[in-house]
Amino acid sequence: MGESGAPEIFLWVVLPYIALTMFVAGHVWRYRYDKFGWTTRSSQLHESRLLRIGSPLFHFGILVVLIGHIGGLVIPKSWTEAAGISEHTYHVTAVVLGTIAGISTLAGIAILVYRRRTVGPVFLATTRNDKFMYVLLVLAIVLGLVATVAANVVGGGYDYRTTISPWFRGIFFFQPDPALMAGAPVLFQLHALSALALFAAWPFTRLVHMLTAPLGYLTRPYIVYRSRDVQLGSRGPRRGWERV
After folding, report:
1. Which of 33, 39, 104, 211 could make a disulfide contact with 61, Cβ separation 3.0–4.6 Å?
2. Full-prediction pTM beyond 0.90?
3. DSSP of 164-177
4. pLDDT digits (tens, 9 = 90+) for 156-192
5. Which residues neighbour 102 within 8 Å (Cβ) at sequence distance 6 or greater?
6. DSSP secondary structure string, 22-81?
7. In angstroms, rounded to a whole number, what is the distance separating the alpha carbons of residues 86 and 80?
8. In whole angstroms, what is the distance from residue 70 CA to residue 91 CA?
9. Which of 156, 158, 178, 149 lies closest to 166 in space, CA to CA?
């Protein structure tokens, strides 16, 4: 670990573990004590036209962004080089796909925010928690997009896989090197900090639905409907389907 001062150690060693602890413990708490609140609180019944445009844009973009972050932060640079992917090929692919995904995500969330602000019933159903979540989400997306464009399109390029990626992987091995992040461009630092804030708040917002899969539907018994009409027809009910 390189030489680092107290601010760098707090930002890039202490703060990530605070965010990670809140992310894990928050989901456990939410699942135990707020199961009925574990929902997206869908507003599709109030308005669907803008939702049909903004939601696919946002979800497509955020999915590509997530895959790109996993590939860039989790997979070491030596692995992609061993697979025959040159640095230039990786760089161009990451910048092009990242920029397209970032714009798609930003456009989608802009439509969704506009919808929440202008459609009366949707606006009334929007809580302070939702507004706070949107601020954190938009901030992380904008900073990530600006950092990518500023460093790789406007600037001369920045290989975050030699600094930010090793720092990120070091968190899970309990060996984060704050010196790696201290030397990263400011925009990338701000993007990382905004992401930590988002993950810390994640369990307490509607974003929890991203960790939910309706697996229970595969084994749930059928819902049986019985008529309350006196006249049930000319044929008698089958065994097990008698009126109760």
Report:
1. 104
2. no
3. HHHHHHHHHTT---
4. 778 899 999 999 999 999 999 999 999 899 999 999 9
5. 61, 65, 141, 144, 145, 148
6. HHHHHHHHHHHH-GGG-S----TTT--HHHHHHHHHHHHHHHHHHHHHIIIIIS-HHHHH
7. 8
8. 15
9. 178
